[in-house]
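User: Assemble these into one structure.

Assistant: Restating your components, then the assembled model:
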Amino acid sequence: MIRDARLMPMKAIGRFIRYSRLLVLAAAAALCGAGADAEVSIPTFTGETLPDTDGRHINAHGGNILLVGDTFYWYGEYRGDGTPGSYQQGVACYSSPDLRDWTFRGLALEASADTASLIRRGCIMERPKVVYCPATGRYVMWFHHELKGRGYGAAMAGVAVSDTPEGPFEYRASSRVNAGIAPLNMPSENLLKAYSDTLEWWTPDWYAAVADGMFAARDLAGGQMARDMTVFVDPATGQAYHIYSSEENLTLHIAELDSTFERHTGRYIRIFPGGHNEAPAIFRHGGKYWMITSGCTGWDPNEARLMCADSVMGRWTQLPNPCRGPMAGTTFGGQGTYVFTLGDQYVFMADRWNPKMLSDSRHLWLPVRFDENDTPFIPWPEDRN
Ligand code: GAL
């Protein structure tokens, strides 16, 4: 029943808004395949070659999984084969009815042949994440974008949209994040401070300046740096967030996206300043928010970190390494990219990078378990070497 909000008392309006929001969430859940969770069990992958339905190793790295109806979509970096001159061709899309048999659907976003395009061939498009936006009915892809020939200096977030999950996605824009807007949790005196630009990196004075927000203040006018990233749609509220390594990869930012999921609202926080976190993967469990990150050692693996908060924009605390078993100290030789949730199943997705041939980087899909305190951990599967 649609009611005229002008005739409703305040409390009833509040209930009506909450109810309408839940209806939108329920409709989104139905579209995004809430039905598939009962039947499909998430497979475990431990770094073996993973052929698609054409027999080729799945070339989708640093990406995510999205369930639409009864079909799973896997997005990721479509990397070159390592031969001289081979370049990243864009973002790949695969589909599957069961998370086991994957069919290549082509490039959801292709590097452009147009040399004037920001996504021209030879640029870098890393860690793409695709989510469905119930407010617009569009699929929204965010990715870490570096410009051709500029190494990792641009540190921008790119966004592309599509009416269908396979795409092709239409590239919209790339930029640094929230230009001219200060983080919510940075005292204004820290923004105005005169930071010395001669501080030697990794010294106590430099760490203190980083914690105060030296780099956030430096980048205020032009926007915050955004490299390794994820997008998280809170299943409890439908609010979307862009979470990225900022401030020279030293500090994570969590930035709200607006209801289109295509733009930032301007509200963002800094977490773990100077913590050097990359590869954020976030999920909700037991009424809490959990994030798994890596350290910053390029393509080489390092020890994963676990963080927890009561709300996404709240106070985050760090817990010990969530990995258990052989090679737990190097995230089993991988670096996380996403935690995919299906009903009460959670899988930690990670890449074992092969920098000599990035397309042959291997996939780890490891079930996330919960201990007696309901804290997540990732055991190496006992039946695998
Ligand atoms: C890693 C990062 C990857 C890629 C790589 C390049 O630290 O997680 O996405 O950027 O560095 O060296």
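The CA atoms of residues 183 and 269 lie 5 Å apart.
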